[in-house]
Amino acid sequence: MKFSTTVTAAASMVAAVSAHGGVGTYTMGGTTYEGWQPYNSASGQKSIQRQYSSFNPLLIADLSSVNIRCNNAGTLGTGLSGSVAAGGTIKTKWTQWTHRPAAVMIYMAKCPSSGCNNWDGAGKVWFKIDHQGLVSGTQNAGKWAGDQITDTLEWTTTVPKSLAPGEYLIRHELLALHQANNPQFYPECAQLTVTGSGSVTPSASWLVSFPGAYSASDPGIAFNIDSPAAMTATTYPIPGPAVWDGTGSSAPAPSTPASPAPSSAAPATPSTPASCGPVARYGQCGGNGFAGCTVCASGTTCTKNGDYYSQCL
Asked: Are both 244 and 280 inside the same structural domain?
């Protein structure tokens, strides 16, 4: 009887985590760095990634908790950092992932002069370098950024070319939206040393804190994937700040999400704007389902960053 109970408990744990995952490796500058292994003993583990305990999601109730920062209660580093040049790419590979749909959000934070290893990332220090939500179609039945991770387990992010050298934390987050009004947050953090000739860090207006960046009332969090509006809406308000534009100027004012089309209207289809100005550096210029401007500003080129996102670099 005791053996049977133990087996049942183990099987339940496997089932609970089988639909979830975390970043397992980071590849940058030709080197692959191992992520944390949450179900193994912490003893002896060394990783550029901050320790976390399980693949289980964080929920709305956790938005005011320090756990929302890096999926832990402020655990510090293990003494390792990855190295990436400003303008270089970071390819992350998840251990497993099955939830659809999901948004992808990636942040960085400049560590203090003492370095990252003994710093927990507290304060209004985080800026967003990448995000994507609904790619095409409707909220309820369209293609989402997280589909790429479900299908390939990979996501590639470009570190802003203008970013000043130094030590940083990077925070990858998936926001699973498959349950009506019950989003699931999956954040993980890792330590980086950024090299190169960049000279800019974001001004204060781009910075947010964790906890603090999100509210339960944000439209992209108080979200019902099965609502009548979701059957026709073709945009999704990604939570958090705008993606940093690579300059030291102020962040743009938040925009009010467009109202969804009436339920009787036919779903909108992507179309190319009648007139397009050049897309600024770090702006989106392409990707599957993208219907915006595709011509980059002088001195930049539209660069593919996965199937669903290209940006001017």
From this structure: no
- Residue pair 104/69 in contact by the 8 Å Cβ criterion: no
| Residue 112 sits in the same domain as residue 241 | yes
At position 7, the amino acid (one-letter code) is: V
Q: Could you please report the per-residue DSSP string of 182-201?
A: --EEEEEEEEEEEESS--B-
CA distance 64 to 181: 17
Q: Are 215 and 240 in contact (CB under 8 A)?
A: no
Residue 8 tokens read as 């049942």
256 falls within a domain:
no
Q: Is the pLDDT of residue 262 over 50?
A: no
Q: Assess if residue 110 is contained within a domain.
A: yes
pLDDT at 267 over 50: no
Token digits of residue 94: 């998840």
Domain identity same for 205 and 299: no
Report the amino acid identity of residue 194: V
State which residues form the domain around 305: 270-313
112 and 170 belong to one structural domain: yes
Please report, as a single letter, which amino acid is at residue 200: V
- In the beta sheet, which residues pair with residue 200? 163
Asked whether residue 127 is assigned to any structural domain, the reply reads: yes
Task: Write the pLDDT tens digit of every residue in 59-101.
Answer: 999 999 999 999 999 999 999 999 999 999 999 999 999 899 9
Q: How far apart are the first and last CA of the chain?
A: 62
Mean pLDDT calculated for residue range 171-177? 98
**H or E element in which residue 3 lies:** helix 2-17
Same domain, 44 and 170: yes
Separation between Cα atoms, residue 243 and residue 283, nearest integer Å = 9
Pick 98 or 7 by higher pLDDT: 98
